[in-house]
Amino acid sequence: MIALEIKGTKNMMNSLLRSEQFDSFLVEEAVITTFNTFHIDGHLVKEFYSSEELETLESSRKSLVFSSWSDIRPVCFQLIKGKKTPVSFKVVLHATPQLIEKIAANPECGVAANLIRSLVLNVRYDNGKVTCITGSAFTTFIMDKSVDRLWETYVRQLLSGFGLDFEEV
Fold first, then answer.
1. What's the farthest any 2 CA atoms get from each other in the chain?
2. CA dihedral defined by 94, 96, 100, 103, rounded to 10 degrees?
């Protein structure tokens, strides 16, 4: 697990809320505090969808657990936009199953994809600062830290690729 403080808050907010850069991620939850606290549970409610829609979702994502950031982002943007900055927000993003499989296929990885429950990126805004915190969860106890190292490297490269400056805290 690493914590990266983003140096350009405005750039990060634009990348997260106004661009498609994070759209491939899945959303576990988003909590936004402005004049109220808004809590978005990213778990899909399967009863909302027809069987055809569920098939389409499953074939496009390989996951029917969480909503995609591309679906939740416009809602979050509407809650945050305006002249005042939010008091705080937190977004818990998950790597897609496809990305987990890609990381597990890396020769440096010593853990099978089916043992990786999730690779998480927590994005937090508080006191004018944005911090990104990585995390991982497994289906069983794992001593091997190669997944964590590969996930941390991926996140660093992703943020750098988006033109975001950061420092480890």
1. 48
2. -100
Residue of 154 and 83 predicted with greater confidence: 154
* Entry pTM: 0.92
Taking the C-alpha atoms of residue 32 and residue 36, their distance in angstroms, rounded to an integer, is: 8
Range in 24-38, 44-58, 125-139 with the lowest mean pLDDT: 44-58
Coil, strand or helix at 40: strand
> What is the amino acid identity at position 68?
S
Encode burial over 116-151: b for 16+ CB neighbours within 10 A, e otherwise.
bebbbbbbbbeeeebbbbbebeeeeebeeebbbebb
Task: Give pLDDT tens digits for 79-127.
Answer: 998 888 899 999 999 999 999 999 999 999 999 999 999 999 999 999 9
Torsion of CA 154, 130, 71, 77, to 10 degrees: -150
Number of domains observed in the structure of the chain: 1
135: which strand partners? 120
Q: Which domain, by its residues, includes 65?
A: 3-168
